[in-house]
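BUG: 3D viewer hangs when loading the predicted structure for this chain

Environment: internal workstation, default settings.
Expected: structure renders.
Actual: progress bar stalls at 90%.

Input used:
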Amino acid sequence: MCGIVGAVAQRNITPILVEGLKRLEYRGYDSCGVALHIDGKLQRSRSTSRVADLESQIQQAELAGFTGIAHTRWATHGAPANHNAHPHFSPNNENARIGLVHNGIIENHEELRAELRAAGYEFASQTDTEVIAHLVNHMYNGDLFDTVQQAVKRLQGAYAIAVFCRDEPHRVVAARQGSPLVVGIGKGENFVASDAMALAGTTDQIIYLEEGDVVDVQLQRVWVVDVHGKPVTREVKTVPAFTGAAELGPYRHYMQKEIFEQPRVVGDTLEGVEGIMPELFGDGAYQVFKDIDRVLILACGTSYYAGLTAKYWIEALAKLPVNVEIASEYRYRDSVPHPKTLVVTISQSGETADTLAALKHARSLGMPHTLTICNVATSAMVRECKLAYITRAGVEVGVASTKAFTTQLAALFLLTLALAQVNGRLSEADEAAYLKQMRHLPVALSSVLALEPQIMAWAEEFSRKENALFLGRGMHYPIALEGALKLKEISYIHAEAYPAGELKHGPLALVTSEMPVVTIAPNDALLEKLKSNMQEVRARGGQLYVIADMDSRIQSEEGLHVIVLPEHYGMLSPILHVAALQLLAYHAALARGTDVDKPRNLAKSVTVE
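Structure tokens produced before the viewer hung:
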């Protein structure tokens, strides 16, 4: 979601702030801004265009300073407009004393707004953030650090904020509750950001703030107090910069780059796995896996579809019942907890607000056994769970997830095998066969990606459509869901996915010659049933686009377009089929001229409800 960068230095920090915003663009945003302490005043530049346009504005205005804050905003309260863009000032004029940026949502903003209006404050925006800026100004007692500690006690909701003051140069105060925030340590300079990646190339010395922390960032020191106002020492960690991972290289878009990185990152995720053992998921995993008799998977969006795929795997191989819940729904309904449940969360960023809240809710219900599949080893999700498997997708910039999804599937299949082994359902021969298949995944994925020219021809047809259906059966139904999601996310073509057997129970009414129907046709036990479903579409004049396995005996003809994958891959087949669907979505979006990496209204890391 939104991104924060702040800096206190003895050099011009404008380039650092702008570069930090560029590194946070992957989160998605609809406006951006920078504010600086210049000659005893607070000055800012804001834009509803891209960070590159903001950079041009700053250069034209010749803004330079030693202390400042910056922000990319994904609109929640108030439309994407210049007056709603961060940073917000209080008072909102040339005599501003307080400048502030904010990630999250303040739930009691209306109450605070009414109180501040009664005190004489005027509001220039519809945001909940401006309320915080005026509140800090209203409570200001000459010490920004102390003021912010008092002000955040009045806030209800989720937030990460960075604040600076006209009257206290070389000082930025930040606080977090429910939204991620880090501190970067330099030599005679220090920084804050919502993501360590924003500081790549500036510092690799990072402090991850805990819930309720407030931090005073100055030139020569960083001072942290906890939620109770007590001074605390937070560990400084060395975090590799991964500066090269965010470079586009020869690709047109990050999404394209990340699709083609999948053979490598799946291999990286499985690197060092010589055999199946519970300890792959952390110390004590064996005993946890012995103690549980069911699995609850909590996730959102694409990660939720990874969980649905894992349900088929775990129930088939480990013979454990699995429930997969959308995290934002699970935490708000009455469910039936069971103490012998393994609660598995799946998150690319490890900071997904709904998934974190659902995890805490599950624990509060008396389910202590927790495990996360996550791409960020230092994230809140990893810290909150007893066990973890860290995928190695690397930085994923494109908002529509690709390589994070396939590495999640690889990790979840490992989890499936580990659970099956502990339950005595994985023979040595089966273990060896599955490990061989997994090691071959990078090669198999590369073979699928080599089909790009054929998929591009399909995409040209799709780009002229406004609706599409996706069909799958069994463990490929979640892959159909993911394929439909990818298409609508970046091409804006309305797409729905169904289990193929449900076609006659409603969706068949939509089928015409103008409705492309994408069908995932693996060479498995359901293939003949699927062929019957396909005939139902053809009988209504529908256009079928079939991604089939070798030996599935489906051939192209009028109204039936077929792309044949190089091999059938058994239980791991979903990982191959989804790569083809990713390419279809990418090239359809490309043909329609949409912003592939930053689709409208969407954000990469959803850190608010």
